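Usage

Read records sequentially. Each one opens with the input sequence:
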Amino acid sequence: MRGMGDEIQFKAYEPRQGQLLPGFVGEALDPSDPVFFVDDVVEGLDLRLFERRYAVLGERAYPPRMLLKLWLFGAIAGVYSGREIARRLYWDLRFRHLAGELRPDFRTINRFRDRHRDDFAALLVETVRIAQGFGLAKLGRLAIDGTKIRANTSRSKAMSHKRMVEAEAQLKDEIAQILAQMDELNGAEDEEHGDDDGSGGLPAELQRREARREKIRAARERLEAEKAEQLEDRHQKSFADLDANMMKTGEGAMQYCYNAQAAVSEDGIIVATGLSTSPSDAPELVPMVEVARANTGKRIDVVLADAGYRSEENFRRLRKRRQRCVVAVGREGKAAKWPKGPWTQRMHRMMRLPWARELYRHRKTQGERPFAEIKQRMRFRRFALRGKHKARGEWDLVSAAFNILTIGRAIEA
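and closes with the structure output:
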């Protein structure tokens, strides 16, 4: 309470008053910020594989070590746009700290991700080795799971097989009509002006139709090769990304997606990744086990997987490799019917045992937690690059960023 005539006093507020900022940008950041761990990890990496892709002659390139830091921390911060990273180099102190006050434009930042898409697989292995150095990436239990991540396309950029056939026929007729008109016009001009080649080339209208027909033909042939005898008129293919396929997402909607795979250690490190254009997980089980062994250099005690990976061939091949596995033979929470096939029947009997049920109980939290972290906290729900090869590199980059974040948390704990 104040007396009569007293003046209320507020804190000093002078927004245009000059300030002396810290000598180093990092001094203005929270010491526990993950940006410092990303900085330290990348500084310790051997990046000769990245550096070999640059030429000796010409203008000096931006250091690949710096650009790699930007993309890794961008993934942790949920930033997957080269334009957005370039903007943040002006106002986000964390990105400025990693860039050392360099400011590459968005084209340079995007070209780095595209140029090194094949190198991100080796980067992921490096993060696994770092985790092993800290006593992580334990393979007593290896959980393998998959998630559908949207491709950089949409249903509006797609066409059904029936519509493709109709469109090709229509374009063929239109092209024939244009050619007939050209022949008629050329004949009239030859009579009036004489016979010369003119060197005018194909008209733009004809070129557009030819290009569109070729694009439709390529998509139709890809769709026919993928579906084979199961092909129906309603099946469709996207022109923007021929590798992506329609899959059912976690929200229940049908979207163009890739099936992203991850093999996760019992302490939450992604030790192997995969990317499929098929919604089925079953063909990915054995390859994921092999990649996990190669990346870690260690034998896996037991593999955990849900019913999507169940197949007689998978059980037979894993048994031949003397690899223990616990794979559900029915949907969780529902009684499984007696299956066909001796190996599947054997797994069905084993899943009734208490020790097998206890092991399988860890699958959901171990295998699905990285996907929840990547999609929610890191906000990676859609690929930016198109084509399976490029999308695979992007998935390896995001998985490596997740591993760095997980290792940092484990060290602080």
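Summary fields computed downstream for this record:
- The longest strand covers residues 254-264.
- The mean pLDDT is 86.
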